[in-house]
Amino acid sequence: MKREKEKIKIIPLGGINEIGKNLTAFEYKEDIIVIDCGLKFPDEDMFGIDIVIPDISYLIKNKDKVKGIFLTHAHEDHIGALPYVLKQLNVPVYGTKLTLGIVETKLKEHGLLSSVELIRINPKDIIKLDSMSVEFIKTNHSIADSVAIAIHTPIGVVIHTGDFKVDYTPIDGEIIDLARFAELGKKGVLMLLADSTNVERPGYTMSESTVGKTFENIFSTAKGRILVATFASNIHRLQQIITAAAKHNRKVAVSGRSMENIVTVALELGYLEFEKETLISVDAINKYPPENVVIITTGSQGEPMSALSRISNNDHKKISIIPGDLVIISASPIPGNEKLISKVINQLFKKGAEVIYESLADVHVSGHACQEELKLMHALVKPKYFMPVHGEYRHLKQHAELAIKMGLPQNNVIIVDNGDIIEVSKDTLRKNGSVTSGNVFVDGLGVGDVGNIVLRDRKHLSQDGILTVVVTIEKESSSVIAGPDLISRGFVYVRESEDLMEQAKEIVKQVLKECEDKGITDWATLKSKIKDGLRVYLYEKTKRKPMILPIIMEI
Amino acid sequence: MKREKEKIKIIPLGGINEIGKNLTAFEYKEDIIVIDCGLKFPDEDMFGIDIVIPDISYLIKNKDKVKGIFLTHAHEDHIGALPYVLKQLNVPVYGTKLTLGIVETKLKEHGLLSSVELIRINPKDIIKLDSMSVEFIKTNHSIADSVAIAIHTPIGVVIHTGDFKVDYTPIDGEIIDLARFAELGKKGVLMLLADSTNVERPGYTMSESTVGKTFENIFSTAKGRILVATFASNIHRLQQIITAAAKHNRKVAVSGRSMENIVTVALELGYLEFEKETLISVDAINKYPPENVVIITTGSQGEPMSALSRISNNDHKKISIIPGDLVIISASPIPGNEKLISKVINQLFKKGAEVIYESLADVHVSGHACQEELKLMHALVKPKYFMPVHGEYRHLKQHAELAIKMGLPQNNVIIVDNGDIIEVSKDTLRKNGSVTSGNVFVDGLGVGDVGNIVLRDRKHLSQDGILTVVVTIEKESSSVIAGPDLISRGFVYVRESEDLMEQAKEIVKQVLKECEDKGITDWATLKSKIKDGLRVYLYEKTKRKPMILPIIMEI
Hints:
Chains A, B: Belongs to the metallo-beta-lactamase superfamily. RNA-metabolizing metallo-beta-lactamase-like family. Bacterial RNase J subfamily. Two copies of one chain form a homodimer. By secondary structure, the first copy, chain A, is of the alpha/beta class. Chain A folds into three domains: about 5-205 and about 365-430, Ribonuclease Z/Hydroxyacylglutathione hydrolase-like (Metallo-beta-lactamase, Chain A, 4-Layer Sandwich); about 210-355, Metallo-hydrolase/oxidoreductase (Rossmann fold, 3-Layer(aba) Sandwich), CATH 3.40.50.10710; about 450-555, Ubiquitin-like (UB roll) (Roll). Helices cover about 30% and strands about 25% of the residues of chain A. The longest helix of chain A is centred in the last third of the chain and has 21 residues, at about 500-520.
């Protein structure tokens, strides 16, 4: 086979036209590697769904080719689907120390730890597979130990940035490995896939260390307790909080399950540094005067079951707000969470706390590259082809335009969808068909057993409730033995709507009588007549459309 | 009675600790006046609710005292509850020309126009009631013809700003009447109630005319059609779009019911000025080349049924996107709408349109005063007492702090809740009890017939659906004649869960048998045993909690 005709297939199964659920397959000859394996949190119209994971039918069909899952970092939208995917596809998982530390905790919870091979890598490591090799490149992001991935094949190098920003003063001192990106760029990079999350923002993302300065300012003047809510996984943020606390003679307690887990892992692996006695148990906070206490909690997104939300509602077992508390919400609202966060802020203010949040002070920075950082990446890597990833269509489109403005020919930039097969050769880039892809819903213990019909029903039920009509009919004579009984839930107050329900019952009786008179014993027809009669009547009287569920008991 | 003991009662029935539903009662001796009568759009946990209006039990109880409803401006959160409130409380409604023009359209739709007395007022007008008089003061806001209200009583003047901003270069040339606020302030104002919406934002809100400059820039270079989505009621915005269009030889078509209504009213009343032939029908847009067309539409909040949303989904009868279209979303997302708007933007980009929105260009300004404007208002009015209104608790709290920073003693500032009775005398300010207040839900034709139980049921149904269990039992013998039948909706795919449903049926059969054996004929007990048995089993198997509805047919 001629080299010229050889192709790399890139198949994103998540993370395109959406925020989250990141998973991309790279296929070359007999090897498939998977970059990331993330979940997505449900949209508001996915009623009752806990999480959403990618459909990996394609990988299962090509099981034997899949050589491993390569993780860029330990955020849920990059590792959260692992427990579900690994049950169907047991392949080695590659990641940096902290990434695997957090993955371990997750697999332990799902009883999977002993059955999965976890392979720890370091930035600069290169894993050799049959037909390609996989290189890890240090990046900066809002979680420590993030990497980009370069895939080396005989026909060229493909770079996937993962989530990244450029931080010249990172907390761990390790700047994104710009030199390596430049070196690869100089040698020639066939294709770049890059993070599009912040492409709408001009300029640069501020350094994580600027947040530390804000903490320092706040901590130096605060008189009472300080509570800081942030993302559990942002270990550098935690480090800065703890450093500021220690400097101002404050002990630190940690609240919230995910926060406790991450702190444990980060401590074990050496990602947090402080004097042992700085950390105290939540049970001990009342032993210290308020001015010597900092509490780090989960709940920066206003999640109703989180520690901060419970604290704000006086619903936390061990922590309640005392007037004079200062609460810092060290995060930005993820779109859709604004109202939840606002609710928590209002409650905290009502309880007598001061609350500082992003619109009032610089208590948060993003983990994603803004326009100038993206341009830097493009300028260093100088890829032949470019495919924007990690974003909704608006982000992908604008990232594509940014690449074109920087000199790439329009035909060398491709905007794709999940499931598309993108074929790259030395001198061609094109879509060539697609594979099965989409959302798999996890609801309780069920994975994929809730589909569109169930969701449509839940939506319908949520709007106008349900009216159940039951009648017992004698098979032979079609005559009504018992009922009709009408029972509603989520429709109207029955007590205030007796007339309505009585009249509805009369309508059902009429339908039943007609059917009996006509000798109709086809229950499907009868049910549909009951539905129609009730639907028209109820809509006329209430302008509502409850689900109508006729049940016929035959004796 | 001595003057010193005389009191004004201020009773907010909406607009406190919430955005929307503004309605405040002012009571002095035998007069009650009501300022504004607004609705609120439902929170996401108010399943199936169309709109939320204030509980006005207190006003109905004191019907004879209520002298009128005084409107500050024609936004839905200030006039939207009128059709419902006026049905229970037919009092005169006072408002400026445009405000009443828009109210008329609304009352016409509800068949109420002929039965309500609408009294048109102008800024500077004073309406004399028995014990007080009501003065209107010109303000600026994101709708024309907005006013603040000053209530003159023998014990002092109370000013309610309504929604306002300070615009030194407004489109209609009429700056907020700062002189009158200053004059009243100089004479002495007993109490100020002021808009808190933007209290978290430092600086000044930009003038509406800055948006016109952005339009001018965009229109002067655009090559294809231009679509602008904005709030229908922002007539100055519409004027600026039309002016820019006319200047660049573009015809203007209007799409969306509320937009068409408002344009009609504004034209009739002289609030929009342009050459007649500028306006064309939506049916005529294809007669003109793309570079000569502007379409103004509703849907700037991504509302699923709005014109822009339909256009973005190829679901609009008369308008579809053609590549090269430029869409301007001239609005900010109202918290909670971010995802809906993002969906529309993504769809528009996919269809080949360019999309400009707030984060990319200055295509919107707020209608509310930022910190410096609020300080100006406080400095001019110099009230003895202050009560922040129009905002969530966080906003009220920060507005209170702003007033204190400006010199008001802490005890002269009061943060209240809806339903509180605030008593103001010449030298006292205090809460003294409360009246009934709260949310009345409008769902279809029902006003107030959906309460917390119905909402709780809808929420439950939306999460895990419903499992109905029906059984026909012979009364005498307690023996089962037909069933049990299990029917689920929104719970699981029945086809994929046959075992689960079979097993569930077995559990019901066991319960029935036990009850028959024990001779239990108390159906309530039987139902509760069925519920318990199924709940435990289903949760164990699925970690879900569907609503369980056992129905027993007795023959």
